[in-house]
Amino acid sequence: MSTFSRIGVFDSGLGGLTVLNAICAANKGLSIVYFGDTARVPYGSRTPETIIRYAEQDVRFLLSKGVEAIVVACGTVSAIALEELRKEFSIPIIGVIEPACDAAAKVTKSKHICVIGTQATVHSHAYSDYINRQYPDMTVSGIGCPLFVPLIENGFREDDPITKMTVERYLSPIRNTDIDTLILGCTHYPFLSGIIHETLPDVRLIDIGVALSEVVGRTLTLPHNISDNFVEYCFSDRETGFKRFDAEHLKDLPNGPIKSINIESF
Amino acid sequence: MSTFSRIGVFDSGLGGLTVLNAICAANKGLSIVYFGDTARVPYGSRTPETIIRYAEQDVRFLLSKGVEAIVVACGTVSAIALEELRKEFSIPIIGVIEPACDAAAKVTKSKHICVIGTQATVHSHAYSDYINRQYPDMTVSGIGCPLFVPLIENGFREDDPITKMTVERYLSPIRNTDIDTLILGCTHYPFLSGIIHETLPDVRLIDIGVALSEVVGRTLTLPHNISDNFVEYCFSDRETGFKRFDAEHLKDLPNGPIKSINIESF
């Protein structure tokens, strides 16, 4: 079994950094190229054709950097484009759907799981297709929350009354149902996990970054002789300004060079 | 003086349709190619370099359709890229800054104007540079309202409590100042003009689409023998779903073919 020491991680923008953070916290000795497509964020309101085209370019860019495996740190791309990417490219490609569903299936007692995500993710039925196949005794609901990413990307914190009211709007329909497990199906959403927990105190939250980082450690044989991670941060437009965000979800990110690339040329 | 009968109008998405509507209401006999860059919307949170690159591609696409003049129906592109576009392309290119400022200067009594727009627009100082040059006795303030476009694009209506609270957040600092004229410096904002007027009842609102449509009629010699407009609607991803919106700001849009194009190839 070969050792994977150089992996690529990509997302449309800021959200994938929560996944990268979880990967870095759980694994050592990795050389990681992170790509955030900040010139074309958000993906979640676009059509499947466009999302697939963008994802293919993102993967080609990471391949040009010599990565040996790829983590799709984007809920929308994982839901829409994973099969196409796996058909087209021969290296291992890990998405968030399967780890998130497996983690949710493990903890739910009521066997009723809800997924929140972008419009594209919820419309794709990717989560329910996987759960229906793997766990046919479970029920899956889905809620699109299209304003969460713009709120986060524009610096609205989770204690802001506008954020609170938006969370209440999207999630109050879940209250007093038998849903006991909620998959945060977009890598931005951990930034709102505090207020989501306040809104739904009896519901277990599944952070897809944490679920996925465990799979990375299990799926890829990582080198044991290096104790640090090295990350190169690449963006198609501005770097995301992630340093201004609450450190909790990003505190394990190592420093590293920040580069600007033209994604349309890939 | 030549007659311009075929013009191009472009925006990052839905907003430019409010400009197109105003142009169609005020002018007849035009053949218009509209382009909405829905694969890359929003522009307003990107860097000037990226906005200029996108705008150049947008213009090249419209030129390929044989247009004789171009209306930049996007506040962000007008603020960031207009000079570069005029240097690079030889046909007339009309933006929203100058018409909007002229319209505001005409009605302000306090000589204190405020511009609201995307972050990129406000940071560009394009409005204040023009007003300082043309109307040196006037003062210009600016407020970035980055959540307005996502609210509109995601179907939040202006009577929604979340919309109201966001408008109040951004605009309450203007209340009880000597600002008497507010330029809605983004072509999306007419969709919020009702609630903005409620929030600031004593302030005159300048709709940049209306201001610009008058300039189009004055600048371009239009044919007189045709009484209808013909519009071809082109989008880089999904069409904007504009038909689900309040008809008031879009009621003069003629029906026309809707086409899908790959903007990255221009």
* Helix segment tally of chain A: 10
Enumerate the spans of chain A where pLDDT stays under 50 for 5 or more consecutive residues. Answer: none
Give the count of structural domains of chain A. 2
Order of adjacent strands in the largest pleated sheet of chain A = 4-3-1-2-9-10
What is the average of the pLDDT values of chain A? Answer: 91
Percentage of residues in strands of chain A: 15-25%
- CATH topological fold name of the largest domain in chain A: Rossmann fold
Which pair has the most extensive contact? A-B, 24 and 24 residues
CATH architecture of the largest domain in chain A: 3-Layer(aba) Sandwich
Assembly state of the chains shown:
homodimer
Q: What global shape of chain A is seen?
A: globular
SSE succession of chain A: EHEHEHEHEHHEHHEHEHEE
Helix content of chain A: 25-40%
| Rounded Rg of chain A | 17 Å
Summarize the structure.
Two copies of one chain form a homodimer. Chain A is an alpha/beta fold.
Helices and strands, with pairings:
2 copies of one chain form a homodimer.
Chain A: E1 6-11, H1 16-26, E2 31-36, H2 48-64, E3 69-72, H3 75-88, E4 93-94, H4 97-107, E5 112-117, H5 119-124, H6 126-134, E6 139-144, H7 148-153, H8 161-171, E7 181-184, H9 193-199, E8 204-207, H10 208-219, E9 230-235, E10 258-260
Parallel strand pairs in A: 1-2, 1-3, 2-9, 3-4, 5-6, 5-7, 7-8, 9-10
